[in-house]
Every structure is written in C-alpha cells, then in structure tokens.
Amino acid sequence: METRDVDGTLRRACTKCSFVHWGNYSIGVGALVLKEDKVLLVRRAQEPGKGFWTNPGGYIEQLEPIEETVRREVLEESGIEAAVRGIVALRDQPRSIHNLYVAFSMEYVSGEPTPDGMEVDAAGFYSLQEMETMNVAAFTRWLVDVALRGRSEGLSVDRNPVVPLNGYGLFRV
Q1: Residue 13: exposed, middle, or buried by beta-carbon count in 10 A (0-12, 13-18, 19+)?
Q2: pTM over 0.90
Q3: Residues 121 and 34 sit within 8 Å (Cβ to Cβ)
Q4: What pLDDT, on the 0 to 100 scale, is given for residue 86?
Q5: Bridge partners (DSSP) listed for residue 26
Q6: 6, 45, 51, 96: which could form a disulfide with 11 (CB 3.0–4.6 Å)?
Q7: How far is CA 160 from CA 154, 163, 169, in A?
Q8: 18 in the Ramachandran plot: left (φ > 0), alpha (ψ -120 to 50) or beta?
Q9: CA atoms of 81 and 23, how far apart (whole Å)
Q10: What residues pair up with 107 in beta bridges, in sequence order?
C-alpha cells in the first residue's frame, strides 16, 4: 500500500492492483417507536452514554438489510416488536470513522418493555412531560421532537417498486 492522490484526496492504495481504501464508515440506526403518544426509550448500561436515556438502536451488520437491523435492535434492547414505517431523520457525523445514523419511525406491534440487562438496564414508553425529569441524551431529545412534532411521514418503504430491484432496501416519498 502507498499513499497517492486519487481525485484530489490522499488515499491508501495498492501498488500492485486497483484497490483503493476509500475510508472508514459506519452506519447506525435508531428507532422511534410510538405507543399512545409516548416514545420508547432505553437507559444505556454501557459506554458510550452510560446512564443516558436514548431511543433503541445500533449498527448494521455487513450483510443485514437496514430494516432488519432496526427491528432486531429494538427487540434485543427492549423486548418490543415493531414494524418500520419510514425514515424520518438522518445524522451525518464526519470524523475518523465517518458515521451516518438513520432514524426510523416504527409502529408498535407487541411486547412489554424489558431491558436486555447488558446494553440497557431500563426500558419503557415515556411522554414529553415524563422526559423532562429524565437524563435523556441531547440527540435523543432532538429525535423525540422529530417523532412527536414532525410534519411529515418521511421516506416510506417502497414494497412494490415500479422496477423489480431484488436485494435493495428502497424508501421513497
């Protein structure tokens, strides 16, 4: 590997083939599950964010569709089954590992909030009034505002695209 200029940006590239290391990226997902005008929150039991209340979420696995990721994370962290309605917010966080966070509106399906006991130590549905006295993370406060006061349904899942695109996760207005 050597460092070379690729379209005006210094990147690591192989000296023997065409491989270019384009950078380090991660994609996180978060769920905004509503039930009776309350939002599902979990309290972090580990760093980062230990002791803060956040919406359930996590990182996608290499071969896992993003819809499956957010459903899995909600179920793992809170014991709640929820269905994806749409994408309602994005956070772009450029840093050494560039992070993109996709927030989903989700419909409550079933279950009682039960923390996993590892990543989170408490879970429940909370109103804005209840959150006023809770240690809710700043970004989660912003997402709760999106969930409860948003004026749009966001991008919804396209289950019947006009052109079959197998293997794609498609969302549209």
Answers
A1: middle
A2: no
A3: no
A4: 95
A5: 99
A6: 6
A7: 17, 8, 11
A8: alpha
A9: 35
A10: 34, 83
- The residue among 39, 57, 49, 60 whose CA lies nearest residue 113 is 39
Residue-level length of the chain: 173
The token pair that represents 117 in the structure block: 């006991």
Cβ-contact 39, 53 below 8 angstroms: no
List b or e across 29-61, with b for residues whose CB sees 16 or more CB atoms inside 10 angstroms. Answer: bbbbbbeeebbbbbbbbeeeeeebbbbbbbebe
**CA 159 to CA 161: how far, in whole Å?**
6
Residues with Cβ within 8 Å of residue 34, at least 6 apart in sequence: 40, 105, 106, 107, 108, 147, 148
Residue 144 host element (H or E): helix 138-149
Question: Measured between alpha carbons, how far is 93 from 71 in angstroms, rounded to an integer?
Answer: 23
10 token code pair: 């210094």
**CA separation for the pair 57, 31 (Å, rounded):** 6
User: Confidence class of residue 167 from pLDDT cuts 50, 70 and 90?
Assistant: confident
pLDDT in tens, 122-163: 999 999 999 999 999 999 999 999 999 988 888 999 999 999
List, for residues 16-35, the tens digit of each pLDDT value: 999 999 889 999 999 999 99
